[in-house]
């Protein structure tokens, strides 16, 4: 039976033979592409792709600022945003995100003009602020060095609208924050941490996502925010789980080094052969953008801790705590050493400052350390503050301790 084209029915064999139209490909992940365009990442040079992505992000921010400054962005009041709704519509999300980005650029411009009405949030790195100002200088649309009063008021208006847009974004996505926090707590079995702690870190991650979300990137805000929330939670867990607290960026760098060392252990028999140069070459092949100095610093500050209750060795039953000298023993020996008049006068005579010597004599009353006078009374008598007297006493006692220890070592040598 022949195919009836007019009726819209097509034979199955005919359908298979129909050629499929290839969709155009846009290699730039940031540049807006026509509908149906597949955005792919340039895998040949990831570092160059990241730089291009960042440059386009800064450019989009500045362009949004120009649009808001010239009143070409739709006002928030005209979007019909319902704060009781579950989520923003795609158009509302795009416009609100543009107002957020334009507001951040306006804050940078105001800070450059020494206007303290609005501050720059922590999510804005100093390097990004410099790049934004350099781009505005290059465009020449606004003379940010000589802003008139009217221009400053317009920039303030843009910054204030950006703050309102940021608040709207936060309120409309607070449900997403709670869902992600609960999911991460169950997924990672974080029973040692309260839900409030995880939720607090999730909120910080959400604020970072709002400040860095680009509506022209081609993905949903929920997808972008999920990554930031997880990243913030992981940074918090890494900091809290370590006895020695380290910055989050250092923890991230050390995680990368751990991945590199895990892969290099399959090639090298021992960790001694995995030097910073080897790790640097491994990261350079993958274009991770880490310098050799960063690797050396991360390996230098990252040290494993041991318990003081651990044994000194397999043959020694003493613990590390047993080998540490006690401050009480040193204090008792110091008190015994200065308990006699002769020793006390000999030690006090080594103090170079006459006023400090008088203070020590008044406190210990000619060597009687158990009958010390009030420090405040001595401070008033010498016309000094209590803090100054305490500092002089501490320095004098420290000098006397060193003298006793030195004389003790000399006696042992004899």
Give a quick rundown of the structure.
The chain is mostly helical and 414 residues long. It is built from 16 helices and two strands. The protein folds into four domains: 46-171, no CATH class; 173-241, Four Helix Bundle (Hemerythrin (Met), subunit A) (Up-down Bundle), CATH 1.20.120.1810; 244-305; 338-404, Arc Repressor Mutant, subunit A, CATH 1.10.10.
What does this structure look like?
It is a single chain. The longest helix has 28 residues, at 386-413. The radius of gyration is 34 Å and the shape is extended. It is mainly α and 414 residues long. Strands 1-2 form a two-stranded parallel sheet. It folds into four domains: 46-171, no CATH class; 173-241, Four Helix Bundle (Hemerythrin (Met), subunit A) (Up-down Bundle), CATH 1.20.120.1810; 244-305; 338-404, Winged helix-like DNA-binding domain superfamily/Winged helix DNA-binding domain (Arc Repressor Mutant, subunit A), CATH 1.10.10.10. It contains 16 helices and two strands. Helix 2 (46-69) crosses helix 3. The chain starts with 11 loop residues before the first helix and ends with a helix.
Helix content: 55-70%
Anisotropy-based shape: extended
Strand content: under 5%
Radius of gyration: 34 Å
Q: How many strand units?
A: 2
* Overall pLDDT metric: 75
The major beta sheet can be summarized as: 2 strands, parallel
Number of domains: 4
> What is the helix tally?
16
State the strand order across the main sheet: 1-2
């Amino acid at each position: 039976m022949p195919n009836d084209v007019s009726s819209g029915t097509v034979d199955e064999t005919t359908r298979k033979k129909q050629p499929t139209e290839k969709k155009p490909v846009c290699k730039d992940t940031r540049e807006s592409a026509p509908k149906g365009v597949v955005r792919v990442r340039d895998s040949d040079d990831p570092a160059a792709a990241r730089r291009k992505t960042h440059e386009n992000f800064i450019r989009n921010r500045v362009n949004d600022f120009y649009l808001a400054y010239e009143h070409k962005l739709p006002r928030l009041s005209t979007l019909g945003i319902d704060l009781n709704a579950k989520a923003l519509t795609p158009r509302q999300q795009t416009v609100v995100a543009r107002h957020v980005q334009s507001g951040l650029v306006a804050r940078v411009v105001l800070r450059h003009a020494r206007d303290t009405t609005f501050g720059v949030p922590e999510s804005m790195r100093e390097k990004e602020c410099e790049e934004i100002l350099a781009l505005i200088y290059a465009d020449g649309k606004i003379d940010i060095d000589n802003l008139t009063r009217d221009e400053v008021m317009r920039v303030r208006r843009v910054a204030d609208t950006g703050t309102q847009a940021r608040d709207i974004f936060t309120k409309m996505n607070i449900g997403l924050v709670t869902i992600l926090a609960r999911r991460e707590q169950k997924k990672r079995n974080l029973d040692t941490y309260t839900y409030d702690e995880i939720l607090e870190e999730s909120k910080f991650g959400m604020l970072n996502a709002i400040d860095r979300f680009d509506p022209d990137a081609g993905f949903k805000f929920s997808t972008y925010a999920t990554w930031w929330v997880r990243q913030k939670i992981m940074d918090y867990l890494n900091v809290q789980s370590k006895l020695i607290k380290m910055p989050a960026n250092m923890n991230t760098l050390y995680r990368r080094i751990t991945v590199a060392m895990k892969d290099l252990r399959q090639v090298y028999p021992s960790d001694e052969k995995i030097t910073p140069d080897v790790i640097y070459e491994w990261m350079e092949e993958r274009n991770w953008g880490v310098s050799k100095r960063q690797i050396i610093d991360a390996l230098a500050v990252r040290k494993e801790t041991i318990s003081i209750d651990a044994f000194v060795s397999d043959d020694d039953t003493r613990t590390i705590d047993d080998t540490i000298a006690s401050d009480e023993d040193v204090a008792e020996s110091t008190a015994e050493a200065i308990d006699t008049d002769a020793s006390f006068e000999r030690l006090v005579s080594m103090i170079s400052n006459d006023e400090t010597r008088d203070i020590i004599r008044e406190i210990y009353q000619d060597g009687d350390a158990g009958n010390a006078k009030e420090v405040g009374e001595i401070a008033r008598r010498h016309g000094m503050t209590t803090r100054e007297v305490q500092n002089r006493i501490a320095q004098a006692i420290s000098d006397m301790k060193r003298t006793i220890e030195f004389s003790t070592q000399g006696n042992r040598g004899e």
